[in-house]
Amino acid sequence: MRIDLHTHSTASDGTDTPAELVRNAAAAGLDVVALTDHDTVGGHAEARAALPGGLTLVTGAELSCRIDGVSLHMLAYLFDPEEPELARERELVRDDRVPRAQGMVAKLRDLGVPVTWEQVARIAGDGAVGRPHIATALVDLGLVPTVSDAFTSEWLANDGRAYVEKHELDPFDAIRLVKAAGGVTVFAHPLAVKRGSCVPESVIAELAAAGLDGIEVDHMDHDAPTRARLRGMAADLGLLTTGSSDYHGSRKTCRLGEYTTDPEIYGEIVRRATGAFPVPGTGG
C-alpha cells in the first residue's frame, strides 16, 4: 500500500480542487490519501464525492498552533468535524487569516514591494488565505523564484520582515480538543528548520506525555540526519512515525506520494480514531 497522509487543496492553500486532488492521488498510484487543509474541513465533501474506486480518503486538517512564540502545525486525523469546541477553534483561526494576510501585505508595501491585497485575494480564491498565497504573489512579481524561496527571514518566514502573527491554538489544547473529537494527532514536520524556529525536543516530549500520537518524519523539509534523529526520538517517546508529501499542487515542488507512511502505522492511526472512519472510494 502507498499512503500519503498530508495534502492540501484549494480549500486552503493548494492549487488542486479537492476533486482534482483525489483524482491525481489515484493517478499517482496511491492507495490512501489524507486531505489535511489548514484549519478547515471545507474540502472533505467534494473530495468524498469525487473519490475514485481503489482510493481511500482519510479526512483531517492541519491545525495552526503556537507555543513560547514558536509556530507549529498539528495534523489531526479522523476527528468528528461537528464537535463544537474544536469547530469553534478552527473558525477562530480562519477568521484571523484575512486581517493577518492584509497585515503582511501592508508590511511588504512598506518594504517597497508593489503587492496588493486584491492580487493576494485573487490568488487565494475561495481558499483559506495564507502565506503561500502571498508567496505566490512574490513569485508573480519576480522577487523570488519559487514559493519556498519566499519563506526566508527576508520575507515570510516566522522571523521574516513581513511576518505577522495570527490566532493559533496552544498545541496542548489542540491535542486535547482533537482527542475529545475522537481524532489522532501527528506533529507535522517538527524539525523543518528552513521554515524558521522549531520547538525544542523537550517540548515534543511534553506533547507526547500529553497524548500526542505521532510525529511526521519523512518529509521534504527533513534531511537524512534529521529523519534519523526523529526516528530515535519517536522510539524513545513511544510515538508513531509518518511520512507524507505535504502536497500543495503546483504551488510547491513536492509530488503526491513523494514520501509515504508504513501501512502498519496507518492501521494504528485508524485503530485509535473514533470520531470518523476512512472513506473507501466507489468510483465517484
Short précis:
With 284 residues, the protein is an alpha/beta fold.
Structure description:
The protein has 9 helices and 8 strands. Helix 2 links the parallel strand 2 (about 30-35) and strand 3 (about 55-65). It has helices spanning about 20-25, 45-50, 85-110, 115-125, 130-140, 170-180, 200-210, 225-235, 265-270; strands at about 5, 30-35, 55-65, 70-75, 185, 215-220, 240-245, 280. The protein is globular and about 50 Å long. The chain is α/β, with parallel strands linked by helices and about 280 residues long. Helix 4 crosses helix 5 (about 130-140). Strands 1, 2, 3, 4, 5, 6, 7 and 8 form an 8-stranded mixed beta sheet that branches. The longest helix has 27 residues, at about 85-110.
Proportion of strand residues: 15-25%
Q: Please state the CA-atom Rg, rounded to the nearest Å.
A: 18 Å
Number of helices: 9
Order of helices and strands: EHEHEEHHHHEHEHEHE
Count of β-strands: 8
Helix content: 25-40%
Provide mean pLDDT, rounded. 95
The best one-word shape is globular
| Classification by helices and strands | alpha/beta
Distance between the termini: 21 Å
Please outline the major beta sheet: 8 strands, mixed
Low-confidence stretches: none
